[in-house]
Amino acid sequence: MSHTETGPEPLVRRADEVTYEDVDAAAGMKKGVLVSDADGAPHFAIRRFTLEPGAAVPKHTNEVEHEQHVLAGEYTVGLGDEEVTVRAGDSLFIPAGTVHWYRNDGDEEGAFLCAVPNGDDAIDVVDED
């Protein structure tokens, strides 16, 4: 499917067409891009992340907002100075610039959808000291 004179074409991406890649600096986390500007989506990208049991993602900030929906498992999310346990069915809004992190202390894989605006996003890992 390609762009038309009137705009982008609709897209259906099947689950077996999504490629998952390891996330740098986050051992045990994988990311699959479901829909993005590369598909003609003008405003948002949707990605699916998985967190293996024992996985931990360091404290970091992003220049863009994140909207997330937990698909599976149960894991801990740090939001600023707070820690919350999230499970399938929960949703989160992480404003741009918010320090956040993830940790899966359970024995099941966690998975979540994450929507972000298209465009550049700088990710800064926050020093622990």
Task: Summarize it.
Helix content is 0%, strand content 49%.
Computed CA radius of gyration, to the nearest angstrom = 15 Å
Structural class: mainly beta
Which architecture does the CATH hierarchy give at level 2?
Sandwich
Q: How far is the N terminus from the C terminus?
A: 49 Å
Q: What is the number of independent domains?
A: 1
Q: Which residue ranges are poorly predicted, with pLDDT under 50 across at least 5 consecutive positions?
A: none
Just give the CATH class. Mainly Beta
Helix/strand order: EEEEEEEEEEE
Q: Bin the strand percentage.
A: over 45%
Query: Biggest sheet: strands side by side, in what order?
Result: 1-2-3-10-5-8
CATH superfamily: Jelly Rolls
The number of strands is 11
User: Would you tell me which CATH topology applies?
Assistant: Jelly Rolls
Structure in words:
With 129 residues, the protein is mostly beta strands. The chain has a single domain (15-125), classed as Jelly Rolls (Sandwich). The protein has strands spanning 20-22, 29-35, 44-51, 56-62, 66-72, 74-79, 82-87, 91-94, 100-103, 110-117, 123-125. It is globular. The protein starts with 19 loop residues before the first strand and ends with a strand.
List keywords for this structure.
129 residues; 49% strand; 5-stranded antiparallel beta sheet; single chain; 6-stranded antiparallel beta sheet
Structural topology:
Blueprint: E1 20-22, E2 29-35, E3 44-51, E4 56-62, E5 66-72, E6 74-79, E7 82-87, E8 91-94, E9 100-103, E10 110-117, E11 123-125
Antiparallel strand pairs: 1-2, 2-3, 3-10, 4-9, 4-11, 5-8, 5-10, 6-7, 6-9
